[in-house]
């Protein structure tokens, strides 16, 4: 930690002058972030930033995803001012930016090269052309699978599998007596946890959250098929306690060799191929997220990004840090210290160099998935909202969390799927009416 910065000055009495030293206290930036591996790396490498800025101290608050969202939402809505830098997604950036709760990301350093950032990512973090967060990494979703297990079973993964095929593969590869499970999927309740995956499954089956008049459609044929498929497949061929597993838990299961297949964020590519943390690093295949009746909305688009709340008292220092942590300079630092395949993916065109594409076997699928994902057209049917794995309206955070709890209850067998969907339909209809929809 830096105690302060020494400043020199002079004081004169008559013809005698003394050199005086004083210590100016350093500014402390409080950074709230999620406990994902890329953010843990950012915290570790930020010592470089502190060396470059001896007048800035960094205070880290690292939280599990659901807890982080809850803390940040409470703080920003009340203008609590606990944090100077927030790790948020596209959902919060657009809604909070529109409310004036975030600082606009303007006057970036000349060497930041904002034009290098993919347009879809910039647009997802902007409101009416104004950028409100800088992307740390961006992701779509993809299928990870064990090439050795597929080969041993005499089956082949298609480049664009259907969910029906995934269930067939899961049945053949499920050997719980050997601690090997056919498929791992998110089950942990949360609008950004299980519902991110469940919504892409529903999209693939042709479902949508709301019709064009903002009426929920959970009792319709598409949601019924998707929900039954998700619950049945994970209960038959998933690991025990699947309702407790989110991204980090499934990553740990896959890396320890317990999942034959896993569908989740493309950002996991560098972790599952890292021999220091994955027992199966040399036996992983990568392909597109499964579709079913349509490919629309079958893979999500998301970005973990850094934003500055309007309530921060250290905005200049916060801007310096967010620009550094999302810069090409930071990417080069990661490549130098941890290897080029670990550079935060999905945000910059320059990341996808020949060197990176060779070092990262997951890069092609990631890049193509990011380019194909269209939040403005996420469903086979027309929708009144923007968002693939979420609905970009203020009410979605509460509604999505409630629906996520009900899906987790169906997964544990607390209620049949049809009963769960009826309950979801009723609660979502009630909340939307209370919020004044249709508007």
Shape from CA axes? globular
Count of all domains: 2
CATH architecture of the largest domain: 3-Layer(aba) Sandwich
CATH class of the largest domain: Alpha Beta
Major sheet strand order: 4-3-5-12-8
Main pleated sheet: 5 strands, mixed
Going by CATH, what is the homologous superfamily of the largest domain?
Answer: Periplasmic binding protein-like II
Mean pLDDT: 94
Uncertain runs are: 1-11, 18-23
Question: Beta fraction of the residues?
Answer: 15-25%
Q: What is the CA–CA distance across the termini?
A: 52 Å
Number of strands: 12
The SS-based structural class is alpha+beta
Q: What name does CATH use for the topology of the largest domain? A: D-Maltodextrin-Binding Protein, domain 2
InterPro entries: Bact_solute-bd_prot1, SBP
Family: Belongs to the bacterial solute-binding protein 1 family.
Subcellular location: Periplasm
Pfam families: SBP_bac_1
Using brief descriptors, characterize the structure shown.
D-Maltodextrin-Binding Protein, domain 2, three-stranded antiparallel β-sheet, disordered N terminus, SBP, signal, Sugar ABC transporter substrate-binding protein, Bact_solute-bd_prot1
């Amino acid at each position: 930690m830096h105690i302060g910065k020494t400043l020199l000055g002079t004081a004169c009495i008559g013809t005698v002058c003394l050199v005086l030293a004083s210590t100016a206290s350093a500014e402390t930036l409080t950074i709230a972030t999620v406990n994902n591996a890329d953010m843990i790396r950012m915290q570790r490498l930020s010592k470089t930033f502190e060396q470059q800025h001896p007048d800035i101290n960094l205070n880290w608050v690292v939280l599990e995803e659901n807890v982080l969202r809850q803390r940040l939402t409470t703080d920003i809505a009340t203008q609590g001012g606990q944090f100077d830098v927030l790790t948020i997604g596209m959902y919060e950036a657009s809604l909070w930016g529109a409310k004036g709760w975030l600082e606009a990301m303007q006057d970036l350093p000349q060497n930041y090269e904002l034009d290098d950032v993919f347009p879809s990512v910039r647009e997802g973090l902007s409101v009416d052309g104004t950028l409100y967060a800088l992307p740390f990494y961006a992701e779509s979703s993809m299928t990870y699978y064990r090439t050795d297990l597929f080969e041993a079973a005499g089956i082949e993964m298609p480049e664009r599998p259907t969910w029906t095929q995934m269930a067939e593969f899961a049945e053949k590869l499920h050997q719980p007596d050997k601690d090997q499970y056919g498929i791992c999927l998110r089950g942990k309740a949360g609008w950004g946890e299980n519902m991110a995956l469940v919504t892409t499954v529903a999209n693939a089956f042709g479902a949508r959250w709301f019709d064009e008049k903002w009426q929920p459609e959970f009792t319709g044929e598409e949601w019924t098929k998707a929900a039954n498929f998700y619950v049945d497949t994970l209960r038959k061929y998933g690991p025990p306690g699947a309702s407790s597993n989110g991204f980090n838990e499934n990553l740990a299961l896959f890396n320890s060799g317990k999942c034959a297949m896993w569908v989740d964020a493309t950002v996991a590519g560098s972790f599952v191929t890292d021999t220091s943390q994955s027992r199966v690093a040399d036996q992983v295949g990568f392909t597109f997220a499964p579709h079913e009746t349509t490919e629309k909305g079958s893979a999500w688009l998301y970005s973990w990004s850094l934003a500055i709340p309007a309530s921060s008292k250290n905005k200049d220092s916060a801007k310096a840090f967010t620009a550094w942590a999302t810069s090409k300079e930071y990417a080069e630092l990661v490549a130098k210290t941890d290897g080029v395949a670990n550079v935060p993916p999905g945000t910059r065109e320059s990341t996808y160099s020949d060197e990176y594409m060779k070092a990262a076997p997951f890069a092609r699928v990631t890049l193509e998935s990011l380019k194909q994902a269209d939040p403005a057209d996420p469903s086979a049917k027309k929708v009144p909202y923007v968002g693939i794995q979420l609905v970009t309206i203020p009410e979605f955070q509460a509604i999505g969390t409630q629906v996520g709890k009900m899906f987790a209850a169906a997964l544990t067998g607390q209620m049949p799927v049809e009963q769960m969907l009826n309950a979801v339909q009723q609660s979502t209809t009630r909340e939307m009416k209370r919020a004044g929809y249709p508007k």
